[in-house]
Amino acid sequence: MTLIDSEFGASLKRVERWRPWVAGLLMLAGIAGTLFLYRGLQSAEVDSLARYVDNLADYIEVDMLADLGEQMNAHRRMAARLAHNGIEDAGGWQLNAELFLDHYGYYRTLAVLDPALEVLWIRHRGEGHVAPGEIFPVGEEYRPALARARATGEITATRPRFLPDGRPGISLIIPIGTNERHAGYVATTMDIPDAIDAMIPALFRESLDLHAVARGRDVYPYPPQAAPSQWDAGFTVDLDDDETGFLFEFAVSDDIREQLSSAMPEVVLVSGILLSLLLAAVVYLGLNAGDQARVMARANRRLEQEIGEREAAERELSFLVNHDSLTGLPNRSGISEFLADMIENHGDRQAQLAVLFLDLDQFKDINDSLGHQLGDQLLCEVPRRLAGILRDRDFVGRHGGDEFLIAVERADREQVEQLAGNILHALDAGFAVEDHRLFISGSIGIAYYPESGRSVNELIQNADTALFKAKNAGRNQFAVFTREMFAQAQHRLNLSRDIRHALEDGNFRVVYQPIVDVRDLSMSGVEALLRWDHRDGYPVPPQEFIRVAEETGIIGRLGEFALDRALSDLAQWKSLSEDLPGLAVNVSGAQIHEAGFAEQLSILLHQHRIEPEQLHLEITEEVLIENLASNRRMLHKLDEIGIRIVVDDFGVGYSSLSYLKNFPISVVKIDRGFVRDIVSDPEDQAITRTICSLAADLGMQTVAEGVETDEQLALLASYRCSFAQGFLFARPVEADEIAQMIGGQQPWRATSRD
Ligand code: C2E
Ligand code: MG
Ligand code: MG
Q1: Residue ranges, CATH 3.30.70.270, the chain
Q2: pLDDT, tens digit (0-9, with 9 covering 90-100), for 180-219
Q3: Which of 200, 617, 677, 692 is the most buried (most CB within 10 A)?
Q4: Within 5-137, where are the H helices?
């Protein structure tokens, strides 16, 4: 069983092909999204760092400016006090100076200068004596600024320089009194690294890479250190508004950077990439799983469909097995099943369960004359006709050919038999098939459960036996199975078995009865008649064993034996005389319809070197009119070979002679029944006379059977009957006796002469 068909497989392949792409695209989208987020987080982090640094810078700047402002004010206050008290007031001023230096620990030196910039008083913190020029390197370049300051009272800052110990420093100079009240200067020197260290809280300093440049010189840190690759922020502090100040630049330390920067972007990046991979994998697997689920679902659907189809096929098969394709009725096996059910359900009910075996009479004729198609249509019409009479619960099946099986339950046997009569009557009405109006009768055999059989097979077989009885009794009637029938059937069965054995054991023989020419009583022919001496010692009448042989199908072999024996006897006689009698051999209906019958005959004739004209085949009128169409074909075939055809037992079937002119018939054999009482019965006389004269008119010869008396012979002669056969001349005798008769010793001739 293929669960995935090719089309489905192809679409699956297509799905399989784009599946990795979907997963790949999703992964790329995920990674792109992650990168975007990462960059966003990163820049947010940079922004936040920048904000932090800016804030820090602002804070330090503001703090420093405030601090410096305060120092400037302290300078101004000192200058103001000296201006007020006079620079001679060293005592008061010195205290001020001490307080100042104590308070601002990063000022190294504080001095009072006269207007000519000569040191009047100096207070220095640090090692040894310091030359005022070293402390206040006030050269010519400051004179314009100082001259301006004398008018404004503003502070002048010197360029940064290196103090004697090598540290960067700066001096601030403020005039004492302005203009004409100018009395000198207050000058201070500040240790820049210390000042910066003091002004910027340690907390910040530790976390910053701080760097200061003043007028092109590195002033912080001391000693100088390698600068970082880039600064995070910076600001300028101008001490004296000369537009050149200290440029402070700083970079946050790695610690701060680390503190400020979270691992978030990296976490997001890594987990985003991982998530993307995971998502792609999940989607890929999901698609796979989805596909698999779809495949499974599809496979399941297909499986269900297949199961459904199989069940339907099984149902169909079982229908086909159990039903007839032509009529749609249950066939033999369907009948068996249904009957078995019916029997099982019947139980011990009071009602009569009956099986009616219906066979159409002479259906073969319709088939042969009008064709199988019409025959088939008629077969389909019959169950429709039955439907009008039967009840819903009644059963109709086609047993085969033109045989139908009807099973019914009725209150009593009378009703069943009434139904059988109704069925026959319904068929009588005839059928309109295409342009034809077909008339057909039927015969019915009835078997009752359980008297006529307990099993399905028994019931059918016994209904068939009863049918056989109905047919034999003249058709278009029904017969109910009886125990005697069973005995007869049993007898037939035994007989058929015995025929088989007798054929093998050579217990059959052929005798010949002379047929004489009515005009001169010469032996014109002989009729071959089969004889069977049963091994139990009694002769079995031909009528009996021929019928059984026909019914059981062994007639073919039996007829073949008779023909072969008769032809070989004729061949023997041939050596005795040129003037050979014609040989009449009886053939039954079943025999002539066997395939290759004509061909087989030709072979036999050839083998025995017998001219076909020498052989006369006797076919009873009954057989002839039963299957007109097929008989006509066969008889013409035989006629073509040259074999003569004799209608045996003519008159029994009441068929008209003119009807027979359509057949290639040479001889008509008048049934013994008409001859028997011919002397006394005017009707038989009339019939016989008519047959003889009509046959003569049609160019046929006539044979009278069973001629036992001279009177009969005389009458037949007067009717111009061609030939006569009967005990008057000879009983059927052995072949060698015929041989003697051929030689001239024909006893009847002697008798008649007497
Ligand atoms: P049939 O073909 O009509 O044969 C004539 C029957 O009449 C023979 O009976 C014969 O013995 C009998 N018969 C002849 N003359 C007289 C007579 O004067 N008085 C009386 N009462 N009977 C006479 P048989 O031999 O018993 O044959 C009976 C039937 O069996 C035959 O009737 C024929 O239909 C059939 N039969 C015999 N042999 C064969 C055979 O080889 N093949 C076939 N298919 N049928 C055969
Ligand atoms: Mg005969
Ligand atoms: Mg006869």
Answers
A1: 332-481
A2: 889 888 888 888 888 888 888 777 777 777 888 877 778 8
A3: 692
A4: 6-85, 90-103, 132-135
Residues of the chain with CATH 3.20.20.450: 511-530+553-748
Q: How many CB atoms lie within 10 A of CB 45?
A: 16
Query: How many angstroms separate the CA atoms of 39 and 26, rounded?
Result: 20
Position 2 pLDDT exceeds 50: no
pLDDT tens digit sequence for 396-413? 999 989 999 999 999 999
Dist CA 192 CA 248 (whole Å): 12
Task: Give per-residue burial for 414-434: e unless 16+ CB within 10 Å, then b.
Answer: eebbebbeebbeebeeebebe
What pLDDT shows up at residue 131?
64
Q: What angle do CA 506, 509, 513 make, to 5 degrees?
A: 175
- Count the alpha carbons within 13 Å of 486 in the hemisphere toward its beta carbon: 13
Give 191-257 as a 3 state SS string.
EHHHHHHHHCCHHHHHHEEEEEEECCEEEECCCCCCCCCCCCEEEEECCCCCCCCEEEEEEECHHHH
Count helices and strands (H / E) in the chain. Answer: 26, 26
Check if the beta carbon of residue 382 is closer than 8 Å to that of residue 326: no
What distance in angstroms lies between residue 618's CA and the mean position of ligand 2's atoms? 6
| Residue 28 Cα distances to 268, 275, 285, angstroms | 16, 11, 17
Q: How far is CA 328 from CA 311, 336, 396, in A?
A: 20, 16, 10
Residue 589: CB within 6 Å of ligand 1?
no
- Distance (angstroms) between ligand 2 centre and the Cα of 525 equals 12
CA distance 19 to 289: 11
Token pair in block for residue 421: 């009569």
Question: Ligand 2 mean position to 685 CA, how many Å?
Answer: 21
Separation CA 236–CA 168 (nearest Å): 17
Question: What CATH code would you report for 332-481?
Answer: 3.30.70.270
Q: How far is the CA of 533 from the centre of ligand 1 (A)?
A: 16
Looking from the CA of 397 toward its CB, the CA atoms found within 13 Å total 23
Q: Which architecture characterizes domain 64-255 according to CATH?
A: 2-Layer Sandwich (3.30)
Residue ranges near ligand 3 (ion) with Cβ within 5 Å: 648-649, 705
Ligand nearest to the CA of 586: 1
The model's confidence at residue 1, banded by pLDDT at 50, 70 and 90, is: very low
Q: Residue 543: CB partners within 8 Å, gap ≥ 6?
A: none
- Nearest-CA residue for ligand 1 atom 24 is 542
Measure the CA–CA gap between 234 and 211, rounded to whole angstroms. Answer: 9
Tell me the C-alpha distance between 256 and 206, whole Å: 10
The distance of Cα 402 from the centroid of its chain, to the nearest Å, equals: 40
User: Tokens at residue 736, please?
Assistant: 């060698």
Q: Is 708 in the pocket of ligand 1 (CB under 6 A)?
A: yes
Selection from 579, 587, 580 nearest residue 555 by Cα: 587
- DSSP class of residue 170 equals E
Q: pTM of the predicted model, to two decimals?
A: 0.54
Q: How far apart are CA 559 and CA 597, in angstroms?
A: 11
CATH classification of 511-530+553-748 is 3.40.50.1360, yes or no? no
* CA separation for the pair 354, 334 (Å, rounded): 17
Condensed to tens digits (0 to 9), the pLDDT of residues 675-734 reads 999 999 999 999 999 999 999 998 999 999 999 999 999 999 999 999 999 999 999 999
**Cα(203)–Cα(200) distance, rounded to whole angstroms?**
8
